[in-house]
Amino acid sequence: QESDILGFTRIRRVAPIAVNTHGGRAKCLQRLIRLDLPVPETVALSFDAVHRLAEGQSFDKKSLLRVFGEAPLLSVRPSSEDPDWGGPGAILNIGMNDARHAELTQTHGPDAADQLYLRFVQSYAVHVERLDPELFEFDTDMPVGEALKAALDAHEDETGEGFPQDPAHQLGQVLRSMARAWEGTTARLLRQAKGAPADAGLGLIVQAMSLGLGPGESGAGVIQLVDPGTGAPQVKGRYKRQAQGREALSAPTGAAADEVMYLTRDARGTSLEEAQPKIFETLVEMSRLCRTRLREEMQVEFTIAGGKLAILDAVRVPRSSRAALRIAVQLAEDGIIPREEAILRVPARSLTELLHQQVDPSGKREVIAKGIAASPGGAMGRIVFNSTVAQSYEARGEPCILVRRETTPEDIRGMHSSVGILTERGGVTSHAAVIARGMGVPCVVGASIRINIREKTLELADGRKLEEGEVLTLDGSAGEALLGAAKMLPPVKDHWYLQLMDWADGIRDIGVRANADTPMDAAMARDFKAQGIGLCRTEHMFFEGDRLTVMREMIFAAKQEDRMEAIARLLPMQRSDFIELFRIMEGLPVCIRLFDPPLHEFLPSTREGAKELAEALDLPLSDVTRRIEWLSEFNPMLGMRGVRLGITFPEIYAMQARAIFEATIEASKHGDPVVPEIMIPLVSAQREVELVKTQIDAVAAAVRNETGANFTYRLGVMVETPRAALRAGDIAQNAAFLSFGTNDLTQMAYGLSRDDAGRFMNAYVQQGVFPEDPFHMLDFEGVGELLKIGAERGRAARPDLTVAVCGEHGGNPESIAFCRAAGFDYVSCSPFRVPVARLAAAQLVV
Ligand code: PEP
Ligand code: MG
């Protein structure tokens, strides 16, 4: 006894159809019907109904069939909540049987009738009855009539029965098999991988067929109004005569001459536009209506049956990131969606992709190594294994990719000379990753390679070896290295991008600054419309050119006066750095962090380097190696760096403060007065701040005295140790601002080395120990708690305190949301991530 089941609804203008009960396709079809488009009769089965079908509940198929009138042909298509979650393939021509075949032979001709029957037998046998597909495949040159007969015979051979003739039975079987396919394990795992919940439902759509086969102009196709790659307005699509469903999309070009393959005018052959201008015009108008009323660029699926147009379906035009941005802005410019919605429609992260050259995803790619995607974009060049060779490549104008086990400050020049960086070790905040992101150079770290520096080879996981000079492509967005030169896409910074960013800036309420160390970075920061520099890592200025030598002289100075002499020579260099930064950033705040790294980083790490240095300084090699040993630490990350160095060798910070103040006076002569911000790194105790503040105030007083010029400055503290966050109340008494350095804070909160964590991070994330790499995504629960405590305690002690983040997390949309909720004033990130941060911040307001 068949019991009726609830839940099939004829789609009408007013019918209770919703995305979360009947799926996206059902809802979209209802919208098309409301636009009065010629949509054939359509019935939607709810998630609930489909679920019951899968469980074997029977229902009254005859009453469902009756909706479609006398002897209809039907299609069934899936309708999941999110189209990305997939679903079983469509089944067409349900209702074909011997009687229908005989009728259609009269009305549509034997060829069309044979085709329709054959196709149905094929898909029913394979997808519903699960018979071997090979039995139902025939050569394309076999006459259709013969193929049909062979298919019916094969069916009989396999099942021992004739092909089912009852349309109600056919429909019932199709619906049930599609419902079951959705509940199968493979399908469930596949959609869960795409983010679908475990209990995601499937709706089904039953629709009357409009036959694209038969007399007169008959065929099927798709049409859209934009180019999917660029988003530029352009009528695009496919059309095929004597075809059904989405067949036109997969049909090989150059098929039979009487089957028009082009939708729009095309030099290669006839087109629907020329052959049927009226139908074409109507289609374009209908597509325009869809765009305006569905407020989205749609791809419309249509059939022409004997000259009569039917609209079967419409889906969001699949698009590249670049096209997505242009489409959103264009829709807002045309008044179809509000600006706020355009802002929301562009995923903030997709901007990084647009602002870098990219490896073309449609090109050929031979992946030879996988690692961590440390800095986005694509780069192609020849492999080099050290900085000297990189510089010589650059001098010759030949792009190269620097391949290192890991990078150290000594590699800076080589990194600047390379178009991409690949390392064997390291994680997202390793030296290579941070510097590369700052420079906007694609970088992959922790890659599955083995480097042999002496042999100058790079060994791949499969044992193959690459030598210096071989061509490699880096995909820093995917974290992959590809063999040879891959196809590239250029960066985009067009009207649509600028417009969107302008709208975003108009509504966001948290500041975005850039981390920038050099004039080049600063120029980039301005270009990306950062509201100032949030972190200038001054130590990066000491690795440049002849400064390294002077720096080393300072380190080697045995007597106080020798040290002072070297420092006096560093002063004008630092001063000119700052003058340049202040000029470039004119009118905007510049936050300069006093010297941070341990001194041994300025000394060579190899014996050869030590020998060169001994020659340069005219010292015995033993002196040099002894000094290197003396300075080297067991755990430099927790050793004499940051303010510890500043307190042990106060003359270094004094020199930097003087350089900053003198540059302030100089830069203020030519433009707006500069108010520099000076930041003390790696603080853990209030007394450290007091000592440094006293010293810097004294330098300021001295400079004012000497020059007669007046200036102000703001002194702040970088919160990078858990203790500084906990003691933020005391610390804020001597600080105008607190800027959280979440790289070190994460490292110290977890006790996780930022340079070594890459080795086990994958295992940790895969096994769910960490939901994500905490150097990548701020750990809200632990490190985030320290941020909140620090901000609260700091503000309680000093209500006008500025609070910011300047670690790598500053450019991460989720972390920005966290900081905004915690009341932070601004975030600071590498220049290339500034646009992402600006857009992400705006999206939080909408
Ligand atoms: C930090 O620790 O978060 C930071 C910004 O400083 P650095 O990365 O230079 O240690
Ligand atoms: Mg730090």
UniProtKB/TrEMBL annotation:
Residue sites binding substrate per the record: R537, R593, E720, G741, T742, N743, D744
GO molecular function: ATP binding; kinase activity; metal ion binding; pyruvate, phosphate dikinase activity
Keywords for this protein: Kinase, Magnesium, Metal-binding, Pyruvate, Transferase
Residue intervals of the PEP-utilising enzyme mobile domain: 398-479
Residue ranges of domain PEP-utilising enzyme C-terminal in the record: 500-844
Summary of the function given for this chain in its UniProt record: Catalyzes the reversible phosphorylation of pyruvate and phosphate.
The name this protein goes by in its record: Pyruvate, phosphate dikinase
Organism listed in the record: Celeribacter neptunius
